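Note to self: keep these together.
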Amino acid sequence: MDRGTQACIGDSLARWCAAYALLITSCSVVLDTDAKQCRRTEDCAAFEGTLCIDHACVIPAPGTPGECRKHADCAHRGDDWICRSRDRVCAPLRSPDCQVVSGNYQSDNAIFLGSLLETEGEFESTGRPAQNAIQLALQDLDHANTGLPAVPGEEDPSRRPLVLVGCNSGSDPIAAARHLVEQVQVPAIIGSSFSGVTIQVATEVTIPAQVLLISPSATSAAISQLQDDQLVWRTAPSDNIQAVAIQQLVPIVEDDVRTVLALEAQTPIQLAIAHKSDSYGRGLADTVEKLVTFNGTSAAQNKQNYLRVDYGDPAVPATIALEQAVESLLEQAPHIILLFGTTESITDVLRPIEQRWDTANPHTAHRPRYVFADGGVVDELWTYVGKNDGLRRRILGTIPGTNHDAAGSVFSSFKSRYLSSIKDGTSPDVFGAAGAYDAAYLLMFAFAVIGPLEPTGPHLASGLSALVPPGATVSPGFGEINNVFKAIADGESIDYDGASGPLDFDLSTGEARSDIQVWCVPKDDQGTATVAQNSGLYLEATSGTLVGAISADCD
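Structure:
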C-alpha cells in the first residue's frame, strides 16, 4: 500500500483516517472499491477536508503544494484562510500585525493587495487616515457594482474582487511585510507611512521578492536612489522639491521677524534646524542646510547664529536625544526653528519649548517662529495649539500637493467622500491620506492594464507606466471606474489626475513632481485652532518659485 494513499474502509476507519492524516504525509479515503476512487474533488464531498489527487480522496499535509483548489478547501484551517493561487497552499490572511481584511476574500478569483501603515500607537493619526483612504477606494469599486475586469479567455467570466489585507507597521514592519509577501503572496503593497521604513521594507523584503511597493507619504530623497527594478513608487514627491520651498519661505519669515521686532539689517537673527534622525528628517535637514540663507548668507557661514540638532528616532530608542535637543534650543533662543519630524516634533520638541521658554529666556523679546515640513500636519499640532492664538500665528509649514482647498478640485471630492463614509474622527487632510487613495486607484487601473498577465510586481509596474501622459485625463470616483476600465479595454491611453495631484510620473524613478503648498493653522469662530490648511502661497512645480500670497485666514 502506497505511503501517500493509505486506504480506510468503513465509516469508523474513515474517521480514524481523517485524524491520522494530520500526523502523516497524506491520507486518502476509499469511496468505493474501484481503482479510481474519484475523478474530481467534488467526488470527495462526503469526506471533509479531502481533495481528489491522483484519483484518491486525500487530506494533504499542511503546506503541501496542491493541498487546495479553492478557498473553501481551507475552511477547516480557520477563519480568513485562503487557497493561494500560485502554489495551491492554504494560507492565513491575518497575522499579529495584519488584522484588517476588507473585501470579498472568499471569492476564488479575488486579487489581494497589502497595506503597511502606522495604524496604531504614536503615529496612528498619520497611518489610520491612509488606511481608511485605501478602504474608501475599494468601497468605490464596490459602489460601481464592479470588481477588477475579468481576465479575457478565462473560464470564469466574473469580475475579480479586490481585497485589502491591512497591516500595522509600528511594531515590526519587516515581519508584517513578510506576512504579506510570503503568506498572502500579494503582488503589491501600499506603504509605508515613513521613509525609513519604506527603504528598509523595500531593500529587505519587497525588491528581493519582486513585489511592487508604493508609498503615499515617504518623501526622502534617498528613495530615488534605490536599485529597485522599478518596483518602488510613491505618490509623494521627493524632499528635494520640498526643500526648495522651505529655502524660499525662510526669508519671508525672517523679514516678518525683523519687522515685528524692529530689528536693524545688521542685527543677526538666530535660526535652528531640529530633526528626526531617520532618512526623512536627516535627509530633509541635509538638503535645507545646503540651500537656506538668512542674515544674508548661508547656514555654514552664519556660525554662532545657526544651530542644528538631531533629536534621534523614537523608533530606535538608543538614538533618542529629545531632552538634550530641547535644552540646546532653549539655550540658543532661536528666532526661527525649522522642525523636520513627525508627531514627536510637536509632542516632544515644540511643546516643551513653549512650556519652558519664559523660564529659560526671561529677557528675550520674542518667541520662536516654527516652520514644519509635511510631517507636522498631524492632529496633535492643532490640538496642542488650541486657543493659543500667539502660537498659532507663529506656525507655518510646507506640504506637497495641489491646492486642496480649491472648490471643485479632485481633493475636495475625495474629502467630501471620506467625511461622509469614515466616522472614526480621522482627517483626510493628513498628509498621505489622499496619496493612499490615489495609490489604490492607480493599482486598480494597473490591474486592468495588464489584463491576462499574472498579477506580479513587475507586471503592475508596467501597468502603472501606462497611466501617464499622453492620454485622456481621468480622476478617481466610483462614477468613473467603469468608464476607465472600458477605455483601457479599448486600448485607449489614460492620464491619472489624482486627489494628491496630477501624478505625472518620471518612469525612471517612479515618482512625480508636485506643487508644494505653504500651510498655516487657522482658527474657527470660537478662536480654536483647526486643521492645517493651504495658505495661498505655494511653490509652483513648473517654475520652481513661490507664487501667491498668504491668506488673511491664516492670521
